[in-house]
Design brief:
Layout lengths: L1 E4 L4 H10 L6 E4 L16 H16 L3 E10 L20 H12 L6 E12 L4 E12 L15 E3 L11 H7 L1 H15 L4
Helix pairs in contact: 4-5
Length: 196
């Protein structure tokens, strides 16, 4: 069974492909197509954005689709960067620019900088519409550490760990991360409903 993951993010694709590696599905991504539409993520929640991506990509390709929207919520920044996590530093945002902006915004606040990563995962086909959510708590540190992962991983210290998400091994991250937990929930529902 072929399922299209509505993402061009190679790091995210690798993580999710690993989660589904014990199933018979062939997971492909938008990078496998030249004509994939760019879905405008203009929802006000992670769930709205994840659902919109899934619906629009399903409409274009008529293949079963999984999608997600995820981001970082920092208490002291009143929930920012939130749904704007991937483009926090502007239209030409990069992981590095986003991390620099985040640290700059937190300079005037005392440590610890309590934060959490949240993820909404969605599966859509002609009969099913499944939505799961999960999160991981932790804090933002003042200097990036580690080169694993992507996004804010080098700045995020998961609760109960002395290594950042950028330092821990991909195997561990794929057990504890917000995305891993949300997609494992999604996978279990898909198994329970004989979708995969």
């Amino acid at each position: 069974m072929k399922i299209l993951f509505a993402t061009k993010n190679k790091g995210k694709y690798k993580e999710v492909k690993n989660i589904f590696s014990d199933t018979d599905i062939e997971l492909i991504s938008l990078n496998d197509f030249d004509n994939a539409i760019d879905v405008v993520e203009d929802g006000s929640t992670f769930e709205e954005n994840a659902l919109k991506k899934a619906v629009e990509i399903y409409s274009q390709f008529k293949l079963p689709v999984i999608s997600d929207d995820s981001g970082l919520i920092v208490e002291q920044l009143k929930g920012a960067p939130g749904i704007h996590s991937s483009r926090y530093s502007g239209d030409d945002a990069t992981d590095k620019k986003n991390n620099i902006k985040l640290l700059d915004e937190l300079k005037s606040f005392p440590e610890p900088h309590c934060a959490k990563f949240v993820c909404t995962a969605v599966y859509i086909d002609s009969k099913n519409n499944i939505i799961t959510n999960d999160e991981i708590n932790g804090q933002i540190i003042s200097q990036p550490r580690g080169t694993n992962g992507f996004g804010y991983d080098p700045l995020f210290l998961p609760e109960g760990f002395n290594k950042t998400s950028g330092e821990i091994s991909p195997d561990i991250k794929n057990k504890i991360s917000h995305r891993a937990k949300a997609f494992n929930k999604l996978k279990q529902i898909m198994v329970d409903n004989n979708i995969i």
